[in-house]
């Protein structure tokens, strides 16, 4: 449970800092268009902080942590967030600086989204097993 709490806390801090970075970096470069930097803030807060706060509650109710599947979910999902947000940072910085964005950035962002999806599948499989175990009627 502590892992989920710490992850939520770290993503809260990163989410707030990324919002500040977006505002200051675009202002510093006199940029007023659309950029991926504006999405980092909400992605970190929603996919990071909020998801891990929900996982914390689900863990308390269904004892999810301490299993191999939870550990897989935790690390794969976090890797997905890190890869996706890192590519938003690269893409956004290049856009603000007026440079072209290499195709590899989009491909890597896609990998991040695949990792996020895989992590969520693992979480739902584990949660489904726990719910099933709790709803079994005694024989």
Can you give a write-up of this model?
This protein is an all-alpha fold. It has one domain. Helix content is 83%, strand content 0%. The protein is built from 4 helices and no strands. The model has no long low-confidence stretch (mean pLDDT 96).
Descriptive keywords:
4 helices, 83% helix, single chain, mainly alpha, 139 residues, elongated
- Listing every helix as H and every strand as E from the N terminus to the C terminus, the arrangement reads HHHH
Mean pLDDT: 96
The domain tally reads: 1
Shape: elongated
So how many helices?
4
Percentage of residues in strands: under 5%
Brief synopsis:
With 139 residues, the chain is mainly alpha-helical. The chain has four helices and no strands.
SSE layout:
Blueprint: H1 2-28, H2 37-62, H3 68-96, H4 103-135
């Amino acid at each position: 449970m502590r892992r989920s709490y710490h992850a939520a806390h770290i993503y809260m801090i990163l989410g707030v800092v990324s919002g500040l970075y977006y505002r200051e970096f675009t202002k510093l470069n006199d940029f007023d268009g659309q950029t991926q930097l504006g999405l980092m803030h909400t992605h970190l807060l929603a996919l990071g902080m909020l998801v891990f706060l929900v996982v914390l509650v689900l863990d308390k109710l269904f004892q999810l942590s301490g299993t191999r599947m939870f550990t897989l979910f935790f690390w794969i999902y976090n890797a997905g967030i890190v890869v996706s947000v890192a590519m938003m940072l690269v893409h956004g910085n290049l856009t603000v600086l007026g440079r072209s964005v290499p195709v590899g950035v989009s491909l890597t962002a896609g990998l991040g989204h695949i990792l996020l999806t895989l992590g969520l599948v693992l979480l739902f499989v584990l949660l489904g097993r726990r719910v099933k175990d709790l709803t079994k009627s005694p024989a």
